[in-house]
Amino acid sequence: MSESKIIDARDTFCPGPLMELITHMKQANVGDTLELLSTDEGSGADVPEWVHKVGHEIVSNEKVEGVWHIKIRKAK
Amino acid sequence: MRILVVGGGTGGTILANNLARRLSAEIRARKVRLTMLSASDKHMYQPGLLYVAFGQMTPDQLYRDQASLLEASIDFHVDPVEQFLLDQKQVRTQSGKIHEYDILVIATGSRIVPEEVPGLVEGAETFYTEASAVKMFKRLREFEGGKVAVVVGVPHKCPIAPVEVMFSLHDYFKSRGIRDKVTMKYHYPIGRIHTIENVAKWAKPEFDRMGIEYETLFNVKEVDVKNKIVKSEEDTETHYDLLIAIPPHRGMEVIEKNNLGQGGWIPTDRYKLTMNGHDNVYVLGDTTNLPVSKTGSAAHFEAEVVSENIASIIKIGTPVRDYDGKVYCFIEAGHDRATYAMFNYLNPPNLKPPSKPMHWFKMAYNQMYWTSVRGLL
Q1: What is this model's ipTM?
Q2: In terms of Cα–Cα distance, which of B187, B245, B244, B247 is closest to B216?
Q3: Is the minimum CB–CB distance between A6 and chain B shorter than 8 Å?
């Protein structure tokens, strides 16, 4: 299994974690897994909302020591 | 010590001028040589393009000769870099010349890539280039009413521009007496109307007051120019009579061609502003892959940190400070009011109510920029 690419969006207000994820998803290939790191409290809900709406896949979503680790697989 | 600055935009120019002053004795003694390579002999004040799009400035007001902005001790060449040979500490330029360096600063900026969204070039107005801003203004003047849709590509330079253009459109149509004949709809990529939570909280009631509709989680996928419909990655669509786009951006082609970073964004240490794996290469402004706003303001504050550090490395052998993520953005809240957002990596902006004096300060800053970019302000 290939390693997921890490997007370190901790401690950022602009462009923010979800905007960073969208940028990297555009550059990724279908089937790639990206791991978003975020300290934004809202990311645990905001990111899955977008991922589901656009049709990608949440692989895992957990908060470890104040940091959201959200793995997303590009599905289309 | 040879310092080479690649790029003559806001970051590169502030850095070079700042360094020229800090190292004036070393440059006079020929211990330091400071060279800048740029793709253009002109320097554009890019925030002015929004005013061009609303007929408040003309394009000639946005430019100065680059050489006139630089300290005399800077060896300036209009000769863009085509090849970065980082292992040999060299660059090769368009003219075929090789420049060697001990310290390299890459500040090449970003470019719009509307062609990455099918139909966007043909179907949408924008204001991110001189020609497109003039074209948008002419289109606005001809517009007599209908549905205006604004869409936002990702990533984009000047993250405040999407809300600013809505406020400006509202005031523009009001001043022409046709606001009641225009419906305006704003589309934004994430789940609130601005990526900065406090900006979203402030802008939402302003949109409601102005009668601006909005749809969030809308990433523009394609434009059906014939039927005047813009479609999203999220499978929604909006009909328009006039479409205005904040186009998606990439870093410069030369960065991608030299495999320095995916999308043209160079992997950069967020505190030191060095290129990952290259301690003698600094990266500024839009060129970094940092989760920091792509604005002249970020480039400005980064340039101050890097120039101070390069100077101190030469003088005392060590850098003296880190970049803390500082950004300061004016926010035009229409044609006669403004506020601002100031933040860094750890502290979010706290928005003040828009005021006329802040708008006048922004108008003054449009001129003061030329002092700022000389590294004097």
Answers
A1: 0.93
A2: B187
A3: no
